[in-house]
Specification:
Helix content: 25-40%
Number of strands: 17
CATH class of the largest domain: Mainly Alpha
Structural class: alpha+beta
Largest sheet: 12 strands, antiparallel
Distance between the termini: 34 Å
Radius of gyration: 25 Å
Length: about 600
């Protein structure tokens, strides 16, 4: 397989779709979707031209909130805050966070990409979180920085006042205060600060991130969290009710009955669990445990904390960063925050059971674990997500080290690395005639899948102690009518079986993305070697029309994974290419071993 192919699974779908539009039958099947897309784009641009700063394509949620304005004033008697009992966090998590900070500082790569998130992160006061996590909070220094920010940010057209960042400032500041002893917290609660909080809540309410029932994403939950947390602190009942009304309306849409966020990101799953725990913690200091608000939030928190246990490893950090990585806090910071502020819910020391839940699946052995996600049902989704083209991919770890990884996403900018990390070619998937299992987005940096061309069905189940994923995504453009992938975890090993049903001959490329601990592929030995004496042997066998051991063309390529936003770490891609006569079954076996010292 050529190196260029490994880094581009976008082009085949784009070329196929746009070239086939010349065919009358193909065009007739898609004309309705195309006209709808063009009209939607035009209306959005017209709304953007008419709107004031920070309004964009936002809409007012008239079915949820009646009043269009909210007048919040600062209380005369101080702020109402909960108190956090800080019991400390895992030394392993703290050590890994210190190493992560060193890597980020050494890399210093964010500023090279003109990333708006660099500026916004400075406006969200996330430095307060590091003060909390490091247990070195100095309220006097914090007060000086906060007052300096308030006095120099009076231009409300500046992006620092976009709604999401305003929400982050409110909650980060109040959480920081709630972690301090009363006497030290009082230093920060100045009249200027209280007025600033009141104005921020008014601003958030007037600029809610509601984009209609289909296009609204997790940002509205953050808006609700800030209204509740700020409303409790300021004693403003209308803010609390507005926040709860938003949660009642959209938590059932965005989080399913099992507690999984529909947006297909392991990191955002933990981020939003922290958000709901913030809202619950503040509500508990003013409402009884049997109040309707507490009961509603508690039910979601309990389900999402159970889900978190499935996504965390034994040390309490995320097993994998599947999908987008939030620019607000790194996955390690999110895990530390969860364990530090909410130890009664954090269950990182437990081992999640193997199985399938809410489209996510996990396998466990004595030494290893597998984690993956599928949007079960119909692809593409009708709502925005943080998911990537990774639905037959997965992550595999052995003894706490990532063997087969997920690349995460370095940035939200349209740079080559970040765009590649979203694509199927960055994941552990097969390509057929260059096509990914599911259609790639046809936009350079956005989400647009034309139907019926892109439409596919997908299912995931637990069978015989393993995981089975079935889909018909390849049938849009290749002779493969159905692909069935079975994943079985063994002691220090993994077996992946790919069954391709159809008629004809195809070129198949099987892509494997190894973690940053592995840097060398020995084609003669069919082995990937790591920097810490660990190696992974790979064997490939076929059945049906492909008998016995197969002769494959192998290719190793440098890749990049991003365990947190803005960080790029070298990793290794290995691909083997075959010409197959359908139907075909390919079995790939991996065995991990320690090299002799």
């Amino acid at each position: 397989m050529r190196r260029g192919d490994l880094r581009d699974s976008y082009s085949p779908d784009r070329h196929y779709f746009f070239s086939h539009l010349k065919k009358p039958v193909f065009l007739s099947r898609h004309i309705g979707f195309l006209l709808s897309s063009v009209l939607g784009r035009f209306l959005t641009r017209m709304r953007l031209l008419r709107r004031a700063p920070h309004q964009g394509s936002k809409q007012w949620p008239a079915k949820i909130l009646r009043k269009r304005t909210l007048n919040v004033s600062a209380p005369e008697c101080g702020l109402l805050l909960p108190r956090y009992v800080i019991a400390g966090v895992s030394g392993e998590l703290a050590r890994k966070r210190a190493e992560e900070l060193q890597e980020i500082t050494a890399a210093a790569i964010l500023d090279q990409h003109q990333d708006a998130e660099v500026y916004l992160s400075e406006q969200r006061w996330s430095w307060l979180l590091d003060s909390m996590l490091n247990m070195d909070a100095e309220p006097e220094v914090a007060l000086e920085r906060i007052e300096g920010w308030i006095s120099t940010h009076q231009d409300y057209e500046d992006s620092a006042w976009e709604t999401y960042s305003t929400c982050e400032r409110v909650v980060n500041a109040l959480t920081f205060l709630a972690m301090l002893p009363d006497s030290r917290a009082a230093v920060l609660v100045t009249p200027q600060f209280s007025c600033f909080l009141a104005h921020s809540l008014t601003w958030i309410y007037q600029h809610l991130e509601y984009y209609g029932e289909q296009k609204t994403n997790n940002h509205l939950l953050n808006n609700a969290r800030a209204l509740i947390v700020g409303g409790v602190a300021l004693g403003h009942d209308e803010s609390i009710e507005a926040g709860m009304n938003l949660l009642h309306a959209f938590l059932p849409r965005l989080v399913n009955d099992e507690g999984f966020l529909r947006e297909r990101s392991s990191h955002y799953q933990l981020v939003i669990l922290n958000w709901l725990l913030d809202a619950l913690k503040f509500l508990e200091c003013r409402e009884s445990s049997d109040s309707s608000h507490i009961c509603f939030l508690s039910s979601y928190v309990q389900r999402m904390s159970d889900v978190a246990n499935m996504l965390l490893d034994g040390s309490g950090q995320l097993l994998a960063t599947i999908g987008d990585v939030s620019p607000d806090f790194s996955p390690l910071q999110s895990a530390l925050r969860y364990h530090l502020l909410f130890p009664d819910y954090a269950t990182g020391e437990k081992t999640a059971e193997s199985g399938v839940r809410g489209g996510w699946y996990r396998l466990n052995s004595a030494s290893g674990a597998v984690l993956g996600n599928c949007a079960v049902g119909s692809f593409p989704a009708s709502f925005p997500t943080h998911g990537h083209n990774d639905m037959v991919s997965f992550v595999w770890s052995e003894d706490g080290d990532i063997v087969l990884t997920d690349p995460g996403r370095a940035r939200y900018t349209p740079d080559a690395v970040s765009l590649f990390q979203k694509s199927a070619a960055a994941h552990n998937v097969p390509l057929i005639n260059g096509f990914s299992p599911f259609c790639e987005t046809l936009l350079p940096n956005g989400q647009w899948w034309p139907v019926p061309y892109a439409r596919a069905g997908v299912d995931v189940s637990s069978e015989n102690g393993g995981i089975v994923i079935s889909h018909n995504g390849f049938s849009r453009s290749t002779p493969v009518l159905c692909h069935r992938r079975s994943i079985n975890l063994q002691q220090h090993g993994l077996v992946v079986e790919d069954v391709l049903d159809g008629v004809g001959t195809v070129d198949a490329d099987f892509l494997w993305h190894f973690g940053s601990l592995f840097d060398t592929f020995d084609e003669e030995q069919m082995m990937v070697r790591g920097t810490q004496g660990r190696s992974v042997s790979i064997s490939v066998a076929g059945s049906q029309n492909q008998q016995g051991n197969l002769t494959a063309e192998w290719q190793a390529t440098p890749l990049i994974e991003s365990p947190c936003y803005g960080l790029e770490k070298a990793s290794l891609g290995v691909c083997f290419s075959l010409r197959l006569t359908l139907p075909a079954t390919i079995k790939t076996k991996f065995v991990v071993s320690k090299c002799a010292e």
